[in-house]
Design a protein that fits this description.
Helix 5 packs across helix 10. By secondary structure, the protein is an alpha+beta fold. It has eleven helices and nine strands. The strands form two sheets. A seven-stranded mixed beta sheet has the order 1-4-5-9-8-7-6, sandwiched between helices. The protein has two domains: 89 residues, no CATH class; 227 residues, Bira Bifunctional Protein, Domain 2 (BirA Bifunctional Protein, domain 2, 2-Layer Sandwich). Helix content is 41%, strand content 19%. Bound molecules: 3,4-dihydroxyphenylalanine. The site of 3,4-dihydroxyphenylalanine (DAH) has 12 residues, from strand 8 and strand 9.
């Protein structure tokens, strides 16, 4: 019996070394210490022993049981640890993976030019105001001294809506809206969308303009020149030259079309400027007394100047795009370049 107990001890200790799972450990425990286990069987033989042998073997049996019970306990703890380690490894997150950069949007090239234009004029003391894109004939034409038979009213240029409404063909009507609600001095710029029935390499049906208006006592044409030259040099560079060509606009008198020296050839003449050395960027003039009368300003008391420029045109000079329609095709390969 002593040998049997010792054999059990060695066997179990050996077997424990091979154990990999809690299930195997439990089977092993049942194999030896269960109701029909090998250790239990040996203990059943105790009754047959002599009075002398019984306490000696009883003591040995207790020692074997307790040492094996310790061994089982240790094995269980080790398995627990191992299992936890494996679980941690399996569930861990690989934080070394580089993160995904959020894609950042940026201003559309036309907006970039518009914002820069606003900055330059704000710095000269102009206030930025806006107005409605759906206008009445009154604001878009009549109040701007544009009589009903004027070519600008031709159906081919204007998107007419119902009830005398239309999509404004320029930002000039905002001049009227502001003057109706404000006494001089007025010093504003009006960035915004305008619409005309037009579609080719240099025209889109929707485009942007920046209108300017300054009204006060004793405002002169030379102040208009000063403001525009200052704008052009900040926008296109200090070397920029400017020229005023006589022109006609219903709402200004005298009126001018204003050119800058070609930004590509610096005025020498190239394909971009049609070999003239000049590029037209805006229309301007001294506010026509008729316009003042339409808003109840006294033309004997105040004078002023106004100007209007096409933003896509200026963006085009900055970015040199062969076809301005590409601004509005929303092709990201194109837009990402700016
Ligand atoms: N409204 C004109 C256009 O769209 C541009 C313009 C010319 C505006 C002269 C003005 C101006 O304020 O004085 O063609």
């Amino acid at each position: 019996m002593k040998e049997e107990l010792e054999a059990i001890q060695t066997e179990v200790l050996q077997a424990l070394k091979q154990i990999n799972t809690q299930d195997q450990l439990e089977s092993l425990r049942i194999e030896y210490f269960g109701r029909k286990g090998k250790f239990t069987d040996v203990m059943k033989g105790m009754g047959k022993l002599s009075k002398e042998e019984r306490p000696i073997l009883g003591k040995l049996a207790n020692e074997v049981r307790s040492s094996l019970s310790d061994a089982f306990e240790t094995a269980k703890t080790e398995l627990d640890c191992k299992q936890q380690e494996q679980q941690l490894k399996a569930e861990s997150i690989d934080i070394t993976l580089p993160g995904r950069k959020p894609t950042l949007g940026k201003a559309h090239p036309v907006m970039q030019v518009l914002q820069r234009t606003e900055e330059i004029f704000m710095q000269m003391g102009f206030q930025v105001v806006t107005g409605p894109e759906v206008e009445t004939e009154h604001y878009n034409f009549d109040a701007l001294n544009t009589p009903p038979n004027h070519p600008a009213r031709d159906l081919h240029d204007t998107f007419y809506l119902t009830d005398g409404h239309l999509l404004r063909t320029h930002t000039s009507p905002v001049q009227i809206r502001v003057m109706e609600n404000q006494q001089p001095p007025v010093r504003i710029i009006v960035p915004g969308k305008a619409y005309r029935v037009d579609y080719d390499v240099s025209h889109t049906p929707m485009f942007h303009q920046v209108e300017g208006l300054l009204v006060d006592r004793h405002v002169t044409f030379s102040e208009l020149k000063g403001v525009l030259v200052s704008f052009a040099r900040q926008m296109f560079g200090a070397q920029t030259q400017m020229r005023f060509r006589p022109h006609f606009f219903p709402f200004t008198e005298p009126s001018a079309e204003v050119d800058i020296s070609c930004t590509v050839c610096q005025g020498k003449g190239c394909r971009s400027c049609g070999h003239t050395g000049w590029i037209e960027i805006l229309g301007a003039g001294a506010v026509d007394p008729e316009v003042f009368r339409a808003v109840n300003y006294d033309p004997e008391q105040v004078t002023g100047f106004a100007f209007g420029m096409g933003v896509e045109r200026i963006a085009n000079l900055q970015f040199r795009i062969p076809d301005i329609r590409t601004f509005y095709e929303n092709d990201l390969r194109f837009l990402h370049q700016f």
